[in-house]
Amino acid sequence: MTSDIGAILAIANRDFVKLLRDPMRIVTSFVFPIFFVGLLGGSLQANLGDSVGYNFLTFTFTGIIAQTLFQSSAQGLISLVDDRESDFSQEMFVSPVSRYSIIFGKILGETLVALVQGLAIVLFGLVIGVPITLPILVALIPASLAACLLGGAFGVLILANLGSRRAAEQVFTFIFFPQFFLAGVFSPIQVLPWYLEIPSRLSPLRYAVDLMRNVFYAGSPEYPKVVLASPAFNLAIMAALFTGFMVVGTFLFVRGERNR
């Protein structure tokens, strides 16, 4: 148990230190969320805010922060592909440590990276007038951790059988772009046609976004207008998805390493 905990912390620290040594990654990771929160959220509020009955800037902010945490953790797991290409992953998997500990260490490291990005988005939200109080900020912490962990496990599952960074980046673009709309990041999805409702419910990002809005809008009159399900339901789905992604993704990745 002690060796597994040490391995998890060491691997997580390695990924976090890599972020600190790559300032360009820090800067570029903020461009997308700041662009969409400020421009898209602001324009939607100016044109549609009065008709929907809630602030679209805040609505977009909560969706973007969940999407950023989820996607950053998932895409950060591309480092597994880099480790595979350099044979570093094989060196890790021959160590006397549980393979689940190794994968969880990677997820934890990318979670720390994503949380740094999330903090920057929160600061930007305060600057542009998003009403973030101290109780809301505290409540966002566990929701943010849940979004990061789910995103990381999802990334493991997607990357398990991909052999190159280029392939991974192309697959992630194909997988994530539809989820921006199916998960309600930018627009409400309370009412969808059946052919969109089905893929929306299959989107893991949907539950991370809805959980973020659960905690942000709790106790406000806008809550029933922006929230899809209870926090308990979202957490239960996210826990089940995390477990499934973690188990299947780790199995597939380790099997791929053995077959090389």
Keywords:
mainly alpha, globular, 260 residues, 12 helices
In short:
The protein is mainly α. Helices cover 81% and strands 0% of the residues.
Polypeptide structure, described:
- The protein starts with a helix and ends with a helix.
- The protein has 260 residues and is an all-alpha fold.
- Helix 7 runs antiparallel to helix 10 (204-216).
- It is built from 12 helices and no strands.
- It has one domain.
- The model has no long low-confidence stretch (mean pLDDT 81).
Gyration radius, in Å: 19 Å
Helical proportion? Answer: over 70%
Total helical segments: 12
How much of the sequence lies in strands comes to: under 5%
The number of E-state strands comes to 0
Structurally, the number of domains stands at: 1
Largest sheet: none
What structural class do helix, strand and pairing data support? mainly alpha
Low-pLDDT sequence parts? none
N-to-C CA distance: 29 Å
Overall geometric form: globular
- Average pLDDT across residues? 81
H-E order = HHHHHHHHHHHH
Strand-helix topology:
Elements: H1 2-20, H2 23-52, H3 56-76, H4 79-85, H5 88-93, H6 99-127, H7 134-159, H8 165-182, H9 194-202, H10 204-216, H11 223-226, H12 231-258
Helix pairs in contact: 1-6, 2-3, 2-6, 3-6, 3-7, 3-10, 6-7, 6-12, 7-10, 7-12, 10-12
